[in-house]
Amino acid sequence: MRLLSGLFYAAVAVHAKTVVQNWEITYVTTNRGLNMDAKRGVGVNGKFPLPVVEAELGDTLVLNVRNSLDTPTSLHSHGIFQKSTNYYDGVHMVTECGIAPGSNFTYEIPLEQSGTYWIHGHTSEQNYDGLQTPLIIYDPNDPYPADCEYLFAFEDWSPKTAEEIYPLLTEPNPPFRLFDYPPNALINGLNANLTGPIAFEAGKTYRIRLVSMSSFPLFEFTIDDHELQIIEVDGVLTKPYTTNVVRLASAERVSVLVTAKNSTALNYQYHVTMFGDFLPEIAGIFPSTYNGSVVYNSDSPYYVAESIATGFLDELAIESLDNEPLLPVDHSLYLNATSGFMEDGSTFESFNQITYKSPLVPSLLSALTTGDMAYNPITYGPDTNALVVNLDEVIELLLWSPTNLPHPIHLHGHVFQIVEKGFTNDTTGQYRNRVPEGNAPLKRDTLFIPGEEYAIVRFRANNFGCHIIHCHISSHFMMGLNMLFVVAPDLIQKNVQVPDAVLEQCRLQGIPVSGNAATNNGFNFDAAPNEPFLLDNDPLTDLASDSPTDSP
To answer: Which of 237-246, 275-284, 291-300 has the lowest average pLDDT?
Structure first.
């Protein structure tokens, strides 16, 4: 496993610095060392895995990017709020136009948060094809010191590219399900079957950072006969919470402290399991468990466990370290995360039956250039499903997953408190679980909602800008499970000065940099993407059922 370097330079005098990464984003044809055919991936500097980015609180991260693809690209620093730098959030046609093919662009990101994050492509689901890597930001004054750190970054690598699967997923009567092409697992960018040992010294404390960069399977991590003490979730410090297993959905991150035993008489194993009870089992392929060694003494025998720990985290029992109480609500919103059909029978995902379609002008530029109309949600296009809120308003979201499909929901620019969880078919409230009275609710930026369940979350809209909320299962995001929050348009107009380099990327691609979603002013939205509400039932199936049939 990757031994992180942060411990060693955190012990010396600390000065804010510039951390520079020079990335040429390229196609790389590879099977990532897996027993499968090679496919075209999206890598950096002609190779995989991408370099892990490490920095300290207060540094500035500079990502110098050369786009050597034949299509636009962009980079999102997942979990970084981008306060006052919303134009570097990396979301194609929301905060920027993307980086044009054959051009250069630089992201300059002040690192005002510490914790465990990741960087990934946010154009055409290029992260599905490998454009992703962990981002670790150390705090020299971290309240949870450790003697050493290890990083486990989990990925799944599928035999088809995002470009290949999208039309197959959305066309009428799809000829396949996504899992007809099952993935293999990668740990720290390498074949998970080759996962290496980690070394423990008796009595020492280890921080293990767990990052899920998965496109849709779940991952679990456990160490035989060792407790895992959770201290960080999605970059937010928590009060210590003891468990024996950590389950991660796509985009979730957790740090745990593990105290080594005082004896070196035994060695142990850690286990990484890729699975998903919402996915079909495939004998010998899925689910799959990968085992590595925890070595105290190379001459010692191994502890023999009766079973491998598994289970959900009780997120309602974990408290944030900052003791922030449950927020009072200003506005409540119901978001039904569900699939539906177009008139031609094609399938899409949606919030509230509105499948997301990008506007013709990036939403941030619309907010900056439309004056008072920036407060009207229609300015951003009917298919962005936009909600405009004032600064510091507290928004409560009821996230509803009525089908058997799960959704790891990610909110850009903020973290939300987890308030309540339950089942969508529970009409009595018997299985309703709510954060205990007086607890400081857990805050995170991504929350996994299993199929046929719901969650209630709250967040304070304290970051003016344009921020999307979306499902982080790659296929669901591609299929439209996304919507837009616009926070404080007046403050965007007063405070945001978009660098000319951002606007130049729009000009290179012929994308307008002002006006509403249709590139116009006022209420002229004729050219804006405007798909009808999704239908609950497949119209092709309905037509077939209405057709006359021969008598037996």
So the answer is: 275-284
